[in-house]
Amino acid sequence: MTHWFHRNPLKATAPVSFNYYGVVTGPAASKICSDLRSSRARLLELFTDLSCNPEMMKNAADSYFSLLQGFINSLDESTQESKLRYIQNFKWTDTLQGQVPSITEDEAKEVHRSLKIAAGIFKHLKESHIPKLITPAEKGRDLEARLIEAYIIQCQAEAQEVTIARAIELKHAPGLIAALAYETANFYQKADHALSSLEPAYSAKWRKYLHLKMCFYTAYAYCYHGQTLLASDKCGEAIRSLQEAEKFYAKAEALCKEYGETKGPGPTVKPSGHLFFRKLGNLVKNTLEKCQRENGFIYFQKVPTEAPQLELKANYGLVEPVPFEFPPPSVHWTPETLAAFDLTKRPKDDSAKPKPEEVVKPVKEPDIKPQKDTGCYIS
């Protein structure tokens, strides 16, 4: 089965030793540094471990961040920052400028929840931590507002795709499916708009993906809206809605080809090879032919020249980010532990000598072979 969601490359990070010679003055501080090294290494290993599940990832992340809390916030639960806040610099690559098969119901729920959690993490970083950076994020870098906003919205849109697939599988009312598809298309349009002012040299591929998904779900919205109109004996309007679905589906097909030919970060997925994609083309064609037949024999209604305005609101199924908070500081963080870090003994930084630029090796991502395309069913 070909892949469905576009992904930028995993961010790579330079090694961090947590060795603070002279600053660490006692065994409690030494243990914190040792535990940070091992928990960070474990977390990074899981990024490319195909056997990793969400629970394993959450436990590893909580373990690392609970230890890192002592470097970020004061231990007295005030709003003050830790005295160790600026002792360590971290270096990461940028996803743009640096270097879903058929699933079961349980897996679908896991994907859905994971994407909502991811949106919540991005939102939390945007609102609570990025504003505190000493140096504002450069334009086009991962922590810049436009990219963070695009990640938040894309996570919401992709989570909503799972909702739509489930609604189709359970044969929910066409009006609900049309509304969900319309809202999802709007999500993709907003994500694309967030990236619209970035340099095309490194944003074009990502934007092609967002644009094709916007067209695809707009086609879905018009297709199911046409079914709703037909059920209300508005056959002429139904035909016009299906014609609009046909137009947007053709746009999505063309954009799939353009996306595949566009150079940029991240592996190239193949949405047009997905059964979920191809089934929509057949559904639009068959539904339009049915409407035209019934209009010729029963309704004899005029087909409007203008497409119907989609002003659809889903009454449920819309995705919101899951609120995120870092875990509380590790129990190993005590006033005595913090006192064992003596910043007055920190070696002086000889900034007069130029330092060579550190190279961060890219993450070697696992090669996940596409499975046989059995369709995007959720059962």
From TrEMBL:
Q: What InterPro entries does this protein's entry cite?
A: BRO1_dom (IPR004328), BRO1_sf (IPR038499), BROX (IPR038898)
- BRO1 domain mapped to chain residues: 99-379
Checking SMART domains in the record gives: BRO1
For this protein, the record's Pfam families field holds: BRO1
Q: Give start-end positions of Basic and acidic residues composition bias.
A: 343-372
List the residue ranges of the region (Disordered).
Answer: 342-379
The record's family statement is: Belongs to the BROX family.
Its recorded name reads BRO1 domain-containing protein BROX
Gene coding for it: BROX
